Amino acid sequence: MVNKVRVMIAGAQYAIATTDSEQYILSLADKLDRDISKLMKENPSLSATKAAVFCAMDYLDEYRKSTGSAENMRSQIQDYIADAARAKAAEDKVKAENESLRREAAALREQLARMRKGEKT
After folding, report:
1. For the chain, which residues make up each domain, given as ranges?
2. Alpha-carbon gap, residue 73 to 83, rounded angstroms
3. Whom does it interact with, and what assembly results (predicted)?
4. Using an 8 Å Cβ cutoff, are 10 and 36 in contact?
5. Nearest Cα residue to 36 out of 59, 11, 10
6. pLDDT tens across 5-60, in order?
7. Does pLDDT of 88 surpass 80?
8. Can you give the pLDDT at residue 92?
9. CB neighbours of 14 closer than 8 A, spacing ≥ 6?
10. Rounded to the nearest 5 degrees, what angle is found at the Cα of 53, between the Cα atoms of 42 and 62?
């Protein structure tokens, strides 16, 4: 469902049509308004449009860096999953080998016991 949300940013009112919640859009608008206001306060000669462009550049920079970080994390997770799969395969192999050696040891103990019985008679 599309919601129409009215927001005030840098003294101008905007109507935003969105499927996001009103509260979410208001929080975004509030952050943008605060960021633009801060830039304009620090640089009195800066227009709202220029401040908005600087904010957009900053947000895009943050987005790209976070996207890169997310990709890096996905890659690391894939590596960890592959390492875990290899470790599990190695564990399964060792367990199978261990079970085989246990059976072999049991068979050898039985054989030794039979041989000792044969020596006693």
Report:
1. 69-121
2. 15
3. Homodimer. Interacts with FtsZ.
4. yes
5. 10
6. 999 999 999 999 999 999 999 999 999 999 999 999 999 999 999 999 999 999 99
7. yes
8. 97
9. 6, 7, 8, 29
10. 90
pLDDT score, position 105: 98
Q: Is residue 121 over pLDDT 60?
A: no
10: left (phi over 0), alpha (psi -120 to 50) or beta: left
Q: What counts of helices (H) and strands (E) characterise the chain?
A: 2, 2
Contact between 28 and 46 under an 8 Å Cβ cutoff? The reply is: no
Contact 34, 52 (CB under 8 A): no
User: What does the block give as tokens for 109?
Assistant: 């103990």
Mean pLDDT of the chain: 95
**Strands annotated E in 1-121:** 3-9, 12-18
What is the pTM for the complete model shown?
0.64
Distance of CA 119 to the CA centre of its chain: 68
